[in-house]
């Protein structure tokens, strides 16, 4: 099984909240200080984007948490680190180039476009307008499934990908406390996950 | 001037077979044991939660520096070369082979019989399970191999998802049960209980999964073995004018210009399916021009493994993927056929899956999905459950399924690298289409039985759980070594584990490799005084 196959296996076998970024902002906190020092993303811009592309059920606090977690994820990223190599492959692969600079430029471009078209910053636009702008940009992207965050070419996809792979996203989708990839009592796996309501 | 290290027993390699073999020898015999490992020590348990986090967040390897640069070979090969070997990132799935595996020729007229039977190996299966701490349950007798004693731990409980999938799977009258695994369902020998971190492969952050470093740590702490890392064994040398192995010639990677010699009474090659035959081949001498233990030309031949056919099946079941995705159901019913018009044996496993129910950025009409629309679409797709099913099937090896020396590619030290080239036996090649079609039809029937549909199917060409290259046999005409791993050509030279396997069966093979190693240990230890039982 190749390294990429191994990652695909984790996603396929493990559930919707596969591989990356388990515990939201908390998880990325564990990575602090390990990044390359690449300039982080503008917090206000990320938050404005997150409000535009994440589900309302997260609530404002949940949206802010995802935005913060995404920023920490970007800050903790290290390019050219050996990735997991699986059984049956002699190939060694490495993490790709840092996505942060490109995403930062896209956030800046969103803001410039907002100013050019509507005479105000992206963050100051209504949610509907922000969402429309992002939707127009993504309509030009060749995307279907939510990829691994690092494979996302657009910052909005990166943000959604980051969120979609958190345990909280899986719980929200299934309206149940599954908590994938977290340490949980073994004996409880025989029981149906407890239902949750809302964010 | 070479540095000389003296011992009674010198073990080359520190993977899972070597670890448990060394543990048994150290417990039972008064002998000085030296283990030589080319790779590095692995990060301790205390660092594994952090390494797992990086692996989950960014896909980084949780086992940095677990391989040697300059060891890229021609052919399919796993790269792990470190203390604990490939089993540092195994999934800890530990089924036994069934009795039929050891007598394929007698029962079905295909392949070769082993020189040992299931009954010969059974006590060592049990011992391997107890040393590792296997959690499992016995399947129905007609569908599971016999065992003399219960598993050392109760089975890992089925998840809510697997309970539903079990009911579905059994609609075709195929019994399924909890996959035996070397993961703790209860605290065991100082290691904690599994807490469903669900990253067993590649890394368990809590130590609930057995890995060989635990055994090495205990043996080293007790001073029962000397494990020397970063030291590459390059060849074995014979006593002049004799077939007895005298010493191993090695180099320390930190001081490659200063040779090291390991002198011992007994040598155990436990370097896995590639590097074991490679070491014998590269040790050719005037008396053994084709390599040690190779008078009849069988070293590096009959490399074996098993392929798989897998499918994702969507079912009208409300599943909650993510509960413990690496745990599975298994059945060995199809490994135990009585008679066959055409030979086909396979295992069968079922996992929960989220394939077909992942979030997506476009709907079927091509509209971009964001926010509430994305979540609503995701929920709609997740309302149906998905099962992943997979069957490993027997692939019988051709004599020309080989590891050979590649004189065009060399290690950093100038030795030829191995070249790996798998080949099915003529009978397996002829049966391949029938085999894979039959398995695909089985998956279609399973889907239909659950009112579901197959959403994808694939054949993995990679031969998993590889073994062979130093197969055991009844005599030198049929094997490199006997049923204890002792080479026919050199009385004090043993090969153990995966390379000695005659065939690969159709289920995960690591437990069998370890059991073979423990059986070998019972013979390897005989010349040495018994250690008083504590």
Per DSSP E runs of 2 or more residues, the count of β-strands of chain B stands at 15
Strand content of chain B: 15-25%
As a whole number of angstroms, the C-alpha radius of gyration of chain A is: 18 Å
CATH homologous superfamily of chain B, by name? FAD/NAD(P)-binding domain
Low-confidence segments of chain A, given as residue ranges, are 1-38
- Strand-residue fraction of chain A? under 5%
CATH architecture of chain B: 3-Layer(bba) Sandwich
What is the CATH domain class of chain B?
Alpha Beta
| Helix content percent band of chain A | 40-55%
Number of strands of chain A: 0
List the main descriptive attributes of the protein structure presented here.
heterodimer; A: 8 helices; about 50% helix; B: about 525 residues; alpha/beta; FAD/NAD(P)-binding domain; seven-stranded mixed beta sheet; six-stranded antiparallel beta sheet; 15 strands; about 25% helix; globular
Could you walk me through the main structural features you see in this protein, from its secondary elements to its overall organization?
The complex is a heterodimer of chains A (199) and B (534). Chain A has helices at 3-14, 24-29, 43-53, 59-76, 100-118, 127-139, 155-164, 167-174. Chain A is mainly alpha-helical and 199 residues long. Chain A has one domain (3-190). In chain A, helix 4 crosses helix 7. The radius of gyration of chain A is 18 Å and the shape is globular. Mean pLDDT of chain A is 84; it is low at 1-38. With 534 residues, chain B is an alpha/beta fold. Helix content of chain B is 24%, strand content 22%. Chain B contains ten helices and 15 strands. Chain B has helices at residues 16-28, 48-58, 104-108, 118-132, 160-169, 212-221, 272-282, 371-382, 426-449, 510-524, and strands at 3-12, 33-36, 177-178, 226-228, 231-238, 245-252, 255-269, 304-315, 329-331, 348-353, 385-395, 402-410, 416-421, 453-467, 493-495. In chain B, the strands form three sheets. In chain B, strands 1, 2, 4, 5, 6, 7 and 15 form a seven-stranded mixed β-sheet that branches. A six-stranded antiparallel β-sheet of chain B has the order 3-9-10-11-8-14. The radius of gyration of chain B is 24 Å and the shape is globular. Chain B starts with a strand and ends in a 10-residue tail after the last helix. The mean pLDDT of chain B is 97. Chains A and B meet through helix 1, helix 6, helix 7 and helix 8 of A and helix 2, strand 10, helix 8 and strand 14 of B.
């Amino acid at each position: 099984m190749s390294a990429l196959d191994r990652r695909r296996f984790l996603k396929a076998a493990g559930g919707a909240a596969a591989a990356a970024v388990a515990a939201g902002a908390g998880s990325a906190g564990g990575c602090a200080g390990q990044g390359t020092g690449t300039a982080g993303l503008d917090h206000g811009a990320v938050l404005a984007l997150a409000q535009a592309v994440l589900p309302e059920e997260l609530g404002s606090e949940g949206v802010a948490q995802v935005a913060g977690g995404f920023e920490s994820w970007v800050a903790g990223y290290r390019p050219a680190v050996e990735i997991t190599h699986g059984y049956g492959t002699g190939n060694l692969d490495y993490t790709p180039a840092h996505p942060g600079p490109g995403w930062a430029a896209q956030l800046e471009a969103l803001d410039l476009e907002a100013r050019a078209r509507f005479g105000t910053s992206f963050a100051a636009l209504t949610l509907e307008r922000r969402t429309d702008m992002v939707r127009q940009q993504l309509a030009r992207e060749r995307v279907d499934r939510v990829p691994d965050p690092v494979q996302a070419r657009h910052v909005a996809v990166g943000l959604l990908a980051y969120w979609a792979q958190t345990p909280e996203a899986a719980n929200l989708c299934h309206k149940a406390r599954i908590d994938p990839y977290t340490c949980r009592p073994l004996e409880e796996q025989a029981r149906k996950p407890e239902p949750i309501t809302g964010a | 001037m070479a540095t000389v290290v003296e011992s009674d027993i010198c073990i080359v390699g520190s993977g899972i077979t070597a670890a448990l073999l060394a543990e048994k020898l150290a417990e039972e015999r008064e002998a000085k044991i030296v283990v030589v490992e080319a790779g590095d020590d692995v990060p301790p348990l205390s660092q594994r939660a952090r390494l797992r986090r990086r692996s989950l967040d960014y896909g980084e390897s949780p086992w940095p520096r677990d391989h040697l640069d300059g060891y890229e070979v021609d052919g399919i090969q796993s790269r792990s070369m470190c203390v604990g070997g490939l089993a540092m990132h195994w999934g800890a799935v530990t089924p036994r082979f069934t009795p039929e595996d050891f007598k394929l020729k007698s029962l079905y007229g295909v392949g070769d019989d082993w020189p040992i039977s299931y009954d010969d190996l059974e006590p060592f299966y049990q011992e391997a399970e107890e040393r590792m701490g296997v959690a499992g349950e016995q399947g129905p007798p007609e569908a599971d191999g016999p065992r003399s004693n219960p598993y050392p731990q109760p089975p890992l409980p089925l998840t809510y998802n697997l309970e539903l999938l079990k009911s579905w799977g059994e609609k075709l009258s195929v019994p399924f049960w909890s996959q035996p695994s070397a993961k703790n369902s209860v605290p065991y020998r100082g290691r904690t209980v599994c807490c469903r971190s669900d990253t067993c492969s590649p890394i368990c952050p809590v130590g609930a999964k057995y890995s060989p470093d635990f055994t090495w740590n205990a043996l080293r702490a007790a001073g029962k073995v000397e494990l020397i890392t970063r030291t590459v064994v390059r060849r074995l040398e014979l006593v002049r004018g004799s077939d007895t192995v005298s010493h191993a010639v090695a180099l320390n990677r930190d001081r490659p210009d200063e040779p090291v010699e390991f002198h011992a009474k007994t040598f155990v090659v436990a370097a896995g399916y590639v590097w074991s035959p490679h070491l014998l081949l590269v040790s050719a001498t005037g008396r053994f021009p084709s390599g040690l233990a190779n008078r009849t030309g069988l070293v590096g031949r009959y490399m074996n493994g098993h392929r798989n056919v897998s499918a994702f099946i969507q079912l009208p079941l409300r599943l909650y993927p993510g509960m413990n995705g690496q745990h599975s159901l298994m059945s060995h019913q199809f490994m135990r056929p009585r008679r066959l018009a055409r030979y086909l044996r396979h295992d069968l496993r079922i996992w929960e899956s989220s394939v077909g129910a992942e979030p997506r950025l476009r709907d079927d009409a091509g509209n971009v999905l964001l926010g509430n629309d994305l979540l609503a679409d995701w929920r709609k797709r997740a309302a149906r459950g998905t099962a992943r099913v997979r069957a490993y099937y027997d692939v019988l090896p051709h004599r020309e399924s080989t590891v050979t020396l590649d004189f065009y590619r060399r290690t950093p030290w100038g030795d030829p690298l191995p070249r790996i080239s798998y080949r099915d036996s003529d009978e397996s090649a002829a049966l391949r289409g029938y085999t894979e079609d039959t398995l695909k039809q089985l998956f279609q029937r399973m889907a239909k039985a659950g009112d579901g549909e197959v959403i994808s199917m694939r054949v993995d060409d990679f031969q998993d759980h590889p073994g062979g290259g130093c197969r055991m046999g009844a005599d030198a005409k049929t094997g490199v070594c006997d049923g204890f791993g002792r080479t026919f050509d050199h009385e004090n030279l043993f090969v153990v584990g995966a390379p000695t396997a005659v065939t690969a069966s159709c289920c995960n093979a690591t437990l069998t490799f370890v059991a073979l190693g423990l059986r070998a240990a019972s013979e390897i230890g005989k010349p040495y005084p018994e250690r008083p039982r504590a």
